[in-house]
Amino acid sequence: MDLSFVILVEVLYAIASLVLISAGLAVVFGMMKVINLAHGEFMMLGGYATITAVGLGVNVFVAMLIIAPLIVGLIGLVVERLVIRHLYGRLVDTMLATWGLSLVFIGLAKMIFGNTTTGISTPIPGFAVGNYQISGYNFFIILVAVALVIAMFAVLRGTRAGLIARGTMQRADMAAALGYSPDRIYMATFFCGSALSGLAGAVLAPLVGLVPTSGGAYIAKAFITVIAGGPSLIAGLVSSAASFGFVNQIFTFAISPVIGEVALLVAAVVVLRLIPQGITSRFFKGKL
Amino acid sequence: MTRPIGKDVLNILIFAALLIWLMPMMISTYTLTVLVIYGMLGLSLGLIWGFGGILCFGQAAFFGLGAYTYAIAAINIGESTIPMVLAVLAPAAFAALLGAVMFYGRLTDVYLGVITLVVTLILFKFVNSTAGPQYVIGKARLGGYNGIPGFQTLNVPGDPNAYIWGDPYFYVCTVALVIVFLLVTWLLQSSFGRIAIGIRENETRMSLMGYDVAARKTVLFAIGAAIAGLAGALFANWGEIVTPGLFSLGQSAEIIIWCIVGGLGTRFGPFLGAVGLAYLKFMLGQQSMIDNTLITGLILVLFVLFLPRGVVPAIASLWKLSFGRAGRWPQRSNRRRARHG
Is the pLDDT of residue B4 over 90? Predict the structure, then answer.
């Protein structure tokens, strides 16, 4: 009984962290068809922003939930204005340019923070379930992920800005004809996407030792989750995160963490081979 | 493409002989050897991406596979001739399998990128975790993160004690590169190569003309992997150790950067990009003012933004403009390079 509860929490946690890791990339890819390979480095910067802010005496939750997303969002804004806006519609070129950006950020982080591991302790204590110990922070991550999905849905479905964003996503020329500048909308979308990446990096920072190259650990997973998710933004994100997170944790418990990772990657290859346009091209069609 | 192949071959041979004679006077042969190997690796991706339109994010997987195959086989066999052959065949077979899975599934650009990236990651993660004594192939322990040291390096075929190293090894590598380069030249002039370029330009058109697009892409992919595998085996001999780092994403990124900077759709571009950037990295490694990754990244961003066709096509069109027959603009076919996979 205790074991099954622990496994359930771990599976939910794996799904939640995949949702968090991929949300920023999903927004940018889903809305603008731009694959941001510097996404992992945005998360890494979010982590560093949190650690620096906490070091300066800011409350850890304020640092994670407000300061880090803002800072990374602003960095994203600069990147969008300088590089990405010149490359809209050239999918492969944006991938290459953002890959270059990711290397630039790794280099900068190495020069500023040094090539050493830094970290902060988890702000929520763990507790015991029967014979097992569960980290209380896992619940926080699940909570943040759920809140994030609900907020994304609410914004896209319920607000004027969400409506305009969805309209631009479908027909940029029509949105422009109705008087909304796609350039501005793309800029705002990229800001939001980067802020989400920063948030994810910040929230996950207490769990990992942060090094300048930590971004690489996230980007592949995020990339896979978003591509396998397919055309629907939120339904795709949640469904592919759920399937991959489930596969990952089941194999981790059954065999070993490394096999769990490998199983996730193999599952991704199988899914893409069978439904190359992503899960939501066949299931949950037409959902948001 | 219409020039007779004989003249082309002669030009390449003269150029190569000049370089082999001149370069060791400027740079030590130890450094030159690795530059030559990287050049071959760049050429392998340049072939499948620049002429086949297949953007492979995992060319490092084949490079690493070639190096590991060589190391494992060399430990088990105790000489180098058969391992060299295996190091070419194993990545080619793996690529043929992977390519068949991808191309018969009609996967294109981004999806192709994801799958090759994921396969590289799987290999990297797997090899990285093989530190335990249970991971043994024949007499060779895979060694996990530490890699495999101490295998038999290249020897004269038939005589395992006559090692080839130092200056002679440099000449072996350059000759191998020239042979590979000539093979690529021949392949591109053959009907197979011209059809591959046709597929790059318009896949639907070629399939409607009756060519089996998936099979041709698979074969081209396997050839690229074979070249990368050969480069990997040569690299293993040069470094005398193979580590999981060969499979890393950083390595894959570097190969792509070489091709972009050098120029896609040319044979010399990826080779020059590889040699130039690898040498630049080597020079930068000797100073600690600015981080190495930062410069590599900056180069990639600037090239994508300002010179997306790469150095060699840009110089070629400049050359034609200034020295070509008066009033002749670069031909249209030269201007349309496929950058998109």
Answer: no
